[in-house]
Amino acid sequence: MYAKQLTVNKGVDNVLLFEFINQDQKPVNITGSTFIFRLMNQAGNELLLEKDMTVLSASTGRVKAVLDTADTINILAQPGSYSIERTAGNYVQSAFTDANAGARADCNIVDSVLPEFVASQPVSIPTINGKNSWPQAAPSSWPDWALQPQPQSRNYLTEYYSSEIDTTGASLTTIKYDLVHFTGTIKAQAAQDYEALWVDVTESTEYFDESGTFYLNVVGFHPLLRLGINNSQGYGASATATVVDGVVTGVSVTNAGTGYMAAPCVQLLGNGAGATAVGAPFTGPSGIGAITVTDGGSGYLPLNFGDTEAQAVTVMITTGYVTNILYR
Q1: How would you classify the pairing of strands 160-161 and 199-200?
Q2: Listed residue (234, 251, 231) closest to 242, CA to CA
Q3: What is the mean pLDDT of residues 99-119?
Q4: How many CB atoms lie within 10 A of CB 115?
Q5: For residues 176 and 255, what is the distance between their CA atoms, to the nearest angstrom?
Q6: pTM
Q7: Which of 30-39, 77-86, 228-237 tops mean pLDDT?
Q8: What does the alpha-carbon distance between residue 194 and residue 127 come to, in Å, rounded to a whole number?
Q9: CB-based burial of residue 301 (10 Å sphere; 0-12 exposed, 13-18 middle, 19+ buried)?
Q10: How far apart are CA 160 and CA 125, in angstroms?
Q11: How far is Cα 8 from Cα 84, in angstroms, rounded to an integer?
């Protein structure tokens, strides 16, 4: 028997047909034989299902295994494997599934016909905004074995990650996330276990000052997934706010920064409420443009810390952030 990869659909009847042939591709007479079909996990160390098989034609070596709804409904969707045991009198042998005398073949267990509802699960981001620059001076020397000098720059793009997603063997995982004035890239990575190397399993999607809800579908059996996020392109911009009677009346850019590819995310932080502002797209080589107050809010008054009076409003300029990550 030279088997193709099988697919077992959960929640419905699956009729699996097999034909036993020899190395010359001729049918094997299986008169007097009985067969058992076993469904296992991918590692082969957990038996998921065992069924007696029915002989359809002994002279042409044809048998079938019928997996009904009750057999599969409680099995998790996952990449699995199967084997067939043949008994003829006192002789018990395995059915070879390939030309190399392998006794186990691949079988994907999927829930595409009757999927069970799975609630979306939250995913955290250990560091929301990442690190925009290397907080040290650029290197001034390098090892003598380095053929190419290191770049004379103190700003390095920084990729950071969400917490890990356990897919429980699902062949399709959908990740939902919200963006707030986000400029950068997002991709999915996968690993076999918590100690394995992470590899990219989707392309990086670029966003430029995007806000809203977005979805990322990851196809394939990946034990662990995570999001790789990079919004470190753009740094150094700063601004001050003008406050009159607790209301923000204007924002002045004191440093346009560099490296910005789109309008930044601007937040007005203080002990008041309701103040909002938007930044214009970058100007000059790559610095930010003017910042416009869209709502002055109210209640923004200086705070006193001992003999020190703090400013009423702090202007935070970033390249946005990712929040509300869910998966299923």
Answers
A1: unpaired
A2: 251
A3: 75
A4: 13
A5: 35
A6: 0.63
A7: 30-39
A8: 19
A9: middle
A10: 8
A11: 15
Longest dimension (CA), the chain: 99
Structure tokens at 317: 């300029």
Which backbone phi and psi does 180 adopt, to 5 degrees? Answer: -125, 105
Q: Write the CB contacts of 209 (distance below 8 Å, at least 6 apart in sequence).
A: 181, 182, 183, 262, 263, 264, 265, 281, 320
pLDDT, residue 310, reads: 66
pLDDT in tens, 216-226: 999 888 889 99
3-state secondary structure the chain: CCCCCEEEECCCCEEEEEECECCCCCECCCCCEEEEEEEEECCCCCEEEEEECEEEECCCCEEEEEECHHHHCCCCCEEEEEEEEEEECCEEEECCCCCCCCCCEEEEEECCCCCCCCCCEEECCCCCCCCCCCCCCCCCCCCCCCCCCCCCCCCCCCCEECCCEECCCCCEEEEEEEEEEEEEEEEEEEECCCCCCCEECCCCEEEEEEEEEEEEEEECCCCEEEEEEECCCCECCEEEEEEECCEEEEEEEEECCECCCCCCEEEEEECCEEEEEEECCCECCCECCCEEEEEEEECCCCCEECCEECCCEEEEEECCEEEEEEEC
- Rounded to an integer, the average pLDDT of 47-65 is 93
Band (206; pLDDT cuts 50, 70, 90)? very high
Token pair 């003008």 is found at 242
Percent of the chain whose predicted confidence (pLDDT) is above 70: 83
In whole angstroms, what is the distance from residue 49 CA to residue 79 CA?
14
Residue 114 has pLDDT above 70, yes or no: no
